[in-house]
Every structure is written in C-alpha cells, then in structure tokens.
Specification:
By secondary structure, the chain is an all-alpha fold. The chain has one domain (about 20-145). It contains eight helices and no strands. The N and C termini lie far apart (about 60 Å). The model has no long low-confidence stretch (mean pLDDT about 85).
C-alpha cells in the first residue's frame, strides 16, 4: 500500500464526508455556546445579575432542559451527513433544514410553555406540528448518530406508551395509559 492509500483508508472506511468549513465552524460555535450555557446555569452569577438588572436571567429546570435539548439536537443533526448518496450541497440544505426544525421544536416549548399549560391537554395545530416535528428530528438524529437498532428500541417503547392501555395488550403488560 502506498502512503496516500494509507492516509485515505480511514476516510473510505467511515461513512462521514469531509465536513465543510461552515459546518465545522457551526459545530465549534454551538459546542462553545453550549458549554457557556452549562456554566451559566450552574453558577450563582445569574442570580446576582438578575437582582441588579431586574431581568429574568435565571432558568428553571424545565427551561434549562429545553434549551439543553435544543443544543444537543442541533449538534446531533449537524454532526452527521443527512443522506450519504446525495450531492453535498443538497445534503447541506437538508441538514440545516432539519437543524432549524429540530431547534425550533425545542424552543417552541420554551417560548410557549404558559400557553401549553393553560390549554391543559387540548393541543392546537401548532402544538401537534412542533411535537411531531420534534419527535421526527430526534428520530433522525438517533438514526444518524447511533443507528437503526436504537431507533427500533425507542420506537417500540414509544408505541408501548401510546398503545399500552389497549385491550389486546396482555394484562401483565397493560398499563393505565399516558396523558
């Protein structure tokens, strides 16, 4: 084997393409911002700054989880190619579209949490759209990063949550259902 063939061997053995410059920068910026966010929610400084300025700079646990999920989902969707057989430009468009939809689904929960709580189990069209889009984006991120087996296991559990209270489920496995 030549030296060039040895250098190209790892690239041919993995399904990843060379990451374009914009994606690499975006990944770096997201990682640094996510790290700063983690430091922000763990520190006492936001409490002092909120008292001084009167601004809401402190996140409760639910808000922090939603923002955390937005960062993780954005990274998961951005780090792996969408479809390996497509032209890189089309792949890039699909990748950024998925990131935008996934992050907006996470931030929808953050921005409209009071409206969702006031509706109390009566979702409107936007709730249904963003919840289905969020589940689809998480499924795509799981498939691209961890593969089909984990997606199948998660799908089985999701089906159990939705249909585990049905009459055709054996009594030992039946449960009262999800709200």
């Amino acid at each position: 084997m030549t030296a060039k063939a040895l250098q190209d061997a790892p690239e041919q053995a993995t399904p990843f393409r060379q990451r374009e410059q914009l994606s690499g920068r975006a990944l770096t910026i997201i990682c640094i911002t996510w790290s700063l966010f983690q430091l922000w929610i763990a520190a006492d400084f936001p409490f002092y700054l909120s008292e001084l300025t009167g601004l809401k700079l402190v996140f409760n646990g639910q808000e922090a989880r939603q923002i955390h999920l937005a960062f993780g989902l954005g990274l998961g969707l951005l780090a792996y190619p969408a479809i390996h057989q497509l032209h890189p430009a089309i792949d890039r468009v699909i990748k950024y579209l998925l990131v935008a939809v996934g992050v907006s689904a996470c931030l929808y929960l953050f921005l409209f949490k009071l409206d969702i709580a006031n509706r109390a189990g009566l979702p409107n069209r936007f709730d249904l759209f963003f919840s289905l889009a969020g589940i689809a984006c998480v499924a795509v991120a799981v498939y691209r990063s961890l593969g089909l087996p984990l997606l199948v296991v998660a799908g089985v559990f999701l089906l159990y949550v939705l249909f585990g209270d049905a009459d055709y489920v054996p009594d030992a496995m039946r449960w009262k259902g999800a709200s």
